[in-house]
Structures are given as C-alpha cells and as structure tokens.
Amino acid sequence: MTGASAEPLEGLPLTRPTDPGWAAVALGDLPALLSDHAHCEQKAASSAMALVARHPEVPGLPRAMTALAHEEMRHFRQVLDLLEERGGTLGPPPPDAYAGRIRRLSCTLRDGLGSAGDLLLACAFIEARSCERFRLLAGALEDGAKVPGPRGLAGFYRRLSSAESRHWETFRDLAAGAAGKARVARRLVRLAGAEGEIVASLPLRPRIH
Ligand SMILES: [Fe+2]
Ligand SMILES: [Fe+2]
Question: How many angstroms does the Cα of residue 143 sit away from the middle of ligand 1?
C-alpha cells in the first residue's frame, strides 16, 4: 500500500484534514514523537479501564474496554521498543491540550447524551484523529521520508492506523448503545466541526495531537 492509496480521512468522522506540513515536523524529531506517542498509548489503556469503573452499566463496555486496554498496552510496549532501538528514552507525559479540549467540549454540550455517551464520543474523536495522523506518518514514510534508525516504521504506523480506525468505531457503537444511534449521529456532526477548529488552533509539533 502506498501513501496515496489510503485517504487520510476515509471512514472517519473528521471534517478537517491535518495541516499538510505536520508529518514532516513530526518525523523531524522522531524521539520526541515516539515519546509522546508512547504516552498516548498508555493513556488510552488507562482511560479504557477508567471507563469500566465509571460506566459498567453500558452494554458490552466492560469486555470491549478490557480488550482495548490490552491492545493499547501492547502498542505502548511496541512504541517503547521503537524509541529505545533509536536511542531515545521515555520523557514525562507532555500536557495533552487536544484531548483535554475534546473531553471538555464533549462533556459540556447539552443535548442529552449523558456522561457515558459524552465520554465515549470524546474517546471516539481522539481515536479517529490518531488514525488520521498515523495514516499521514505511514504515507510520508512510504513516500520516502528519511528518519534515523532501523526500517519498519511505515508498516508499524500503517498497522496502528487500522487499529485506531477500529477503535473509533468501537467507541461510537458503545455510545450508540448507551445513548441511542440517532442522538449519537447528531452529536458526531456537531463535534466534528468543533474538533476541526481545535486541531487547526494547535501548533504543528512533533506530537501525535
Ligand atoms: Fe493504540
Ligand atoms: Fe486506540
């Protein structure tokens, strides 16, 4: 598969593509990118388990989130391996303005989804944007972007983009089970526009978001 064959926004609820300059900025400081990425994976695992504690009543949520947490921990270990193979070390988690703003946005809209639906859709957007970003990284690497260290990063990001594409659908479907399909569909449209504005307002950095 080449970068050109995978449309970055295909199948995702996003309306605004990432700035075309982002992938070069991100790949220009690979240790910083991989350190941030590793933290994204461990945070995804932690928030999946936090959802089990907070909303065990949502049909299918405990098992879906347990499976997801396992998968995200595996990704965390894989990104740590990639970082260490390239001589990097895991830094402290950088503040995640994107995730914080998406959660605040989703949890303060008043159109009746309730706490579980709000949280699940915030996670859905975080997964969807990660999917787009991984596709962009895979595409840039497949198109010949030079990065230090062993080969194999393009395939890794291509595989992770497929995982994130599945994950956003998992969160969307759990939200529909908790709050109803029609309400979730309306909320997705509303959040998509606001999410695009958040993304456009953040600087281009060697970070996943
Ligand atoms: Fe992941
Ligand atoms: Fe994920």
Answer: 23
Ligand 1 centroid vs 39 CA: distance in angstroms? 10
Q: CB of 207 within 8 A of CB of 36?
A: yes
CATH assignment of 21-87+99-201?
1.20.1260.10
**What is the full per-residue pLDDT of the chain (209 aa) written as tens digits?**
444 446 899 999 999 999 999 999 999 999 999 999 999 999 999 999 999 999 999 999 999 999 999 999 999 999 999 999 999 999 999 888 999 999 998 888 766 688 899 999 999 999 999 999 999 999 999 998 999 888 899 999 999 999 999 999 999 999 999 999 999 999 999 999 999 999 999 999 999 99
Give me the sign of the Cα torsion angle 70, 136, 86, 96. negative
Residue with tokens 């999410």: 195
User: What are the extents of the domains in the chain?
Assistant: 21-87+99-201
CA of 58 to the centre of ligand 1 (A): 22
C-alpha separations of 23 from 84, 98, 138, 155 in Å:
21, 17, 9, 16
Using the Cα atoms of residue 121, residue 127, residue 130 and residue 134 in order, give the sign of their dihedral: negative
**pTM score of the predicted model:** 0.94
The answer to whether the Cα torsion of 170, 17, 103, 81 is positive or negative is positive
Distance 114 CA to ligand 2 centre (A): 23
